[in-house]
Design brief:
By secondary structure, the protein is α/β, with parallel strands linked by helices. The chain has eight helices and six strands, in the order ββαββαβαβααααα.
């Protein structure tokens, strides 16, 4: 089991259960949209972020994106790391049918996928070196055609799919993720 220093924020108890079988970490549930009206939980997230840093790991669907953005609005973004689950279609074993969007949530991911997402976001994992990253600018994204051009959305969608990131990410949301995942040199060496 891997020990993760940051506090990991997930949507619900099934996500927490799956994650607790993969990592040794403090895991906090948002209770889905319940975090929106829970001032005590919001304050707890701020306090934990100040003390240990937070990793937000929500489902790769619309609801997960809304919850992720809400947490981002509650906590200093400098204290957050974003762990993105790939968009894998299917249904969790405990459910009789797939979710509305047909995508697996955190609870449906295997240990390798979870660990890959944690490593990609720059989680502090005991016994592992963190990769050097950062330095990518919006101008670099523009030069690569991922923003500001007529075909940018389609090009960005192909790039997001190749990186196994959520397809609904805007250029503004993608920039900090890229900076967490790779160095500027790695980004510039890619063909788009």
């Amino acid at each position: 089991m891997h020990r993760v220093s940051e506090v990991i924020v997930v949507e619900g108890r099934y996500d927490k259960n799956t994650l607790s079988q993969v990592v040794d970490a403090v895991i906090i549930e948002t209770s889905g949209f319940g975090v929106f009206n829970n001032k005590e939980k919001q304050q707890l997230l701020r306090a934990l972020a100040e003390k240990r840093g937070l990793i937000v790991m929500t489902d790769p669907d619309g609801a997960g994106l809304v919850i992720r953005n809400f947490v981002k609005s509650c906590v200093d973004p400098k204290l957050l790391k974003q762990a993105y689950m790939p968009e894998i279609f299917g249904k969790e074993r405990r459910k009789s049918k797939a979710s509305k969007e047909g995508k697996l949530g955190v609870e449906g991911m295997n240990a390798d996928v979870i660990m890959q997402a944690l490593r990609r976001c720059g989680a502090t994992i005991d016994g592992e070196e963190t990769a050097s990253s950062g330095g990518i600018t919006m101008a670099d994204m523009y030069a690569a055609g991922l923003t500001g051009k007529p075909d940018s959305a389609a090009k960005r969608a192909r790039f997001l799919a190749s990186m196994e990131l959520p397809q609904k990410m805007t250029a503004q949301a993608l920039l900090p993720v890229l900076n967490a995942l790779m160095s500027r040199e790695d980004f510039l060496s890619r063909s788009f």
